[in-house]
Amino acid sequence: MSSKKQPLAIIDIDGTLFRWQLYHELVFKLKEQGYFGEEIAKQLDKSFNQWVSRKASFASYEQFVVDTLVGNLTSIPSHAFDEAAHQVVAESGHKIYVYTHKLIKKLRKDGYYILALSGSQQEVVAPFAARYGFDDCIGSVYERSGDSFTGKIERYVPGSKRTIISDYVKEHDLTLTESVAVGDSDSDIGMLELVTYPIAFNPTVELLHTARQRGWKVVIERKNIAYTLTGAAGDPYVLATADRL
Hints:
The chain is α/β, with parallel strands linked by helices. The protein folds into 2 domains: 7-19 and 95-244, Rossmann fold (3-Layer(aba) Sandwich), CATH 3.40.50; 22-92. The protein contains 9 helices and 9 strands. The chain has helices spanning 22-32, 38-52, 58-72, 78-92, 98-109, 122-131, 161-171, 189-194, 205-214; strands spanning 7-12, 113-121, 136-145, 148-155, 175-183, 197-201, 217-222, 225-230, 238-244. A 9-stranded mixed beta sheet has the order 4-3-2-1-5-6-7-8-9, sandwiched between helices. The protein is globular, with a radius of gyration of 19 Å. Keywords: Amino-acid biosynthesis, Hydrolase, Magnesium, Metal-binding, Serine biosynthesis.
């Protein structure tokens, strides 16, 4: 390594290591436990089914999930929220991508400090990150007062990843030299811009467009194959490798 400081590797969790969204799993677990009421529960199911059947966009479905939690947060005891988060990880934490999991193991052997970064809540991100041996994790945080939520947001990760990482590197005496980051959506672009080795994993259209403009590596995992695409900035991607996982 070119620096004596420990290099940083940042792994976005949702859709990058975890095969779905921890946030969505948590909301539906709370729905299952009756914290949103029958009518809202039906609306959640309807919104999900509309997205799955391509009658609505993922963005509209996701916004409804976000609004459902934020709008009902103050009526959910924080201890129940914590219990639901741990249940999500216990029941679904094994649903991961193989490529990213193997990459994390390699980075650990290579001496990287591995940080999990997620827009999902800290309460569900922390047990998931602990399960896979991350050195630390950062998720969104809602303000608490006793056994209740106030409805205020203390830390909101989406849209703030670049700032969060820059501050974290300084506070923990790490280095972005030889750093690695893996993300899957446009909310990860600021994070990927900071590192030496950005990887767009199963990227959204928006992230794929930016990755192509910047010449970032793209990895697509399908079944038991990881397809690595590379290309100079602005040029079409070419298939570099197809590795069995």
